[in-house]
């Protein structure tokens, strides 16, 4: 870009295809030399509450049809409008719903889990501070590109992609409340998919040995993760009242898919959980996995002690179900997953506890055999 004082002669002599030139006399006045034509334009920053909303460029006219003096008059008028915080290129007036208000509407419209709600709010508080009070209609593709680049550089690709998915969802919610909002600006960005978690093979004997060295409570917790395939929050949020030792049913109420999930515990696990409840009874806790020093009263983050994470153990549990001969649908239901297709919506897992019990027992039997646990323990 070159900057000089425009005159009729100098503008006329500018070569086609030479790009953008800026006038020194009138702020914002440009002469843009395209391949076949030259046009006057005005460019400026729209600011509201001392914040940059967007940079706009308005075409004034071709240089062979508009005199320089007329272009300067029009540029001054347009710059006065832009500097007053008005976008001369804006379409119909919008509701002005902000990204923060869109989050409130988004959460009100959906029955989301506490963890999902907390995740949305965390993104707003920690990554979207520059956009949270901006009108969604004013958020541009460039704003989204800058946000993606900034979060990715500071926190990594996975976090950057997760934040952009949050913005996409909130903009879509805002669009339902304001029909003047155009296309979702996040759609112009290639948001990478969440990378698949790599989980190595599990040596069950080593896992069993490692858990044996833990405290009795943590030992039983880690083994229960493997024998149920439960998610971390689902298992840690179980209360004593959620386990029926006589029926051998462990009920999870904190589910990602919503609703309750009843798991038929195998014979060995049933005895382990009975013993666990008896040993922890003096603590007078309502939780199955108590932690008196925790703010919640139960374990929040299980100690690893060299064993795989709860999520990795869920992967191993699913894999071992296949090795134990558990069919696909039954394995998915044991993990509390929804079956695909229209018919999947008609299947209610809590009604099939006893039908699923042989499959849960098959998983337990395989784990115990591979762990080297004695046959006596398996049959008890």
List key phrases describing it.
380 residues; alpha+beta; Double Stranded RNA Binding Domain; DNA polymerase, domain 1; hpI Integrase, Chain A; 3 domains; five-stranded mixed sheet; 14 helices; 8 strands; 12% strand; elongated; disordered C terminus
How would you characterize this protein structure?
With 380 residues, the protein is of the alpha+beta class. It folds into three domains: 2-83, Double Stranded RNA Binding Domain (2-Layer Sandwich); 99-188, DNA polymerase, domain 1; 204-379, hpI Integrase, Chain A, CATH 1.10.443. The chain is built from 14 helices and eight strands. The chain has a five-stranded mixed β-sheet with strand order 1-2-3-4-5, covered by helices on one side. Strands 6-7-8 form a three-stranded antiparallel β-sheet. The radius of gyration is 31 Å and the shape is elongated. The N and C termini lie far apart (83 Å). The relative contact order is 0.07.
Estimate the strand proportion. Answer: 5-15%
Count of DSSP E strands? Answer: 8
CATH level 1 class label of the largest domain: Mainly Alpha
Q: Give the overall shape, derived from the CA principal axes.
A: elongated
CATH topology of the largest domain: hpI Integrase, Chain A
CATH architecture of the largest domain: Orthogonal Bundle
Low-pLDDT stretches are 375-380
Q: What count of helical segments does DSSP give?
A: 14
Give the helices and strands as they follow along the chain: EHEEEEHHHHHHHHEEEHHHHH
- Main β-sheet, in a few words? 5 strands, mixed
Q: From the helix content, strand content and strand pairing, which structural class follows? A: alpha+beta
Radius of gyration: 31 Å
Strand order of the largest sheet: 1-2-3-4-5
Query: What would the average pLDDT be, to the nearest integer?
Result: 89
Helix content, binned percent:
40-55%
- The count of domains is 3
């Amino acid at each position: 870009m070159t900057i000089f004082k425009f005159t009729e002669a100098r503008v006329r002599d500018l070569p086609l295809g030479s790009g953008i030139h800026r006038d020194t006399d009138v702020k914002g006045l440009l002469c843009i030399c395209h391949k076949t034509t030259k046009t006057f334009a005005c460019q400026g920053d729209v600011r509201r509450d001392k914040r940059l909303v967007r940079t706009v460029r308005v075409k004034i006219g071709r240089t062979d049809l508009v005199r320089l003096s007329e272009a300067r008059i029009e540029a001054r008028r347009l710059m006065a409008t832009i500097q007053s915080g008005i976008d001369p290129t804006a379409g119909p007036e919008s509701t002005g719903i902000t990204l923060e208000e869109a989050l409130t509407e988004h959460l009100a419209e959906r029955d989301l889990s506490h963890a999902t709600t907390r995740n949305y709010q965390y993104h707003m508080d920690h990554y979207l501070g520059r956009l949270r009070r901006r009108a969604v209609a004013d958020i541009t593709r460039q704003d989204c590109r800058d946000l993606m680049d900034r979060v990715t550089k500071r926190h990594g690709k996975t976090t950057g992609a997760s934040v952009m998915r949050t913005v996409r969802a909130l903009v879509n919610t805002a669009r339902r409340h304001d029909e003047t909002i155009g296309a979702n600006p996040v759609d112009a960005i290639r948001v990478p998919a969440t990378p698949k978690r790599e989980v190595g093979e599990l040596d069950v004997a080593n896992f069993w040995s490692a858990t044996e060295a833990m405290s009795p409570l943590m030992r039983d917790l880690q083994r229960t993760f493997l024998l149920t395939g439960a998610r971390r929050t689902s298992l840690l949020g179980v209360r004593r009242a959620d386990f029926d030792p006589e029926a051998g049913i462990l009920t999870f109420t904190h589910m990602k898919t919503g609703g309750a999930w009843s798991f038929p515990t195998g014979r060995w696990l049933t005895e382990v959980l009975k013993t666990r409840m008896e040993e922890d009874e003096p603590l007078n806790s309502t939780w199955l996995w108590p932690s008196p020093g925790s703010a919640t009263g139960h374990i929040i983050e299980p100690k690893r002690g060299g064993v795989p994470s709860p999520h990795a153990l869920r992967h191993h549990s699913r894999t071992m179900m296949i090795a134990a001969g558990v069919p696909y649908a039954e394995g998915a239901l044991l993990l509390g997953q929804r079956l695909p297709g229209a018919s999947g919506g008609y299947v209610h897992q809590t009604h099939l506890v006893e039908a699923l019990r042989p499959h849960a027992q098959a998983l337990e039997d395989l784990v115990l055999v591979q762990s080297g646990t004695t046959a006596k323990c398996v049959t008890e």
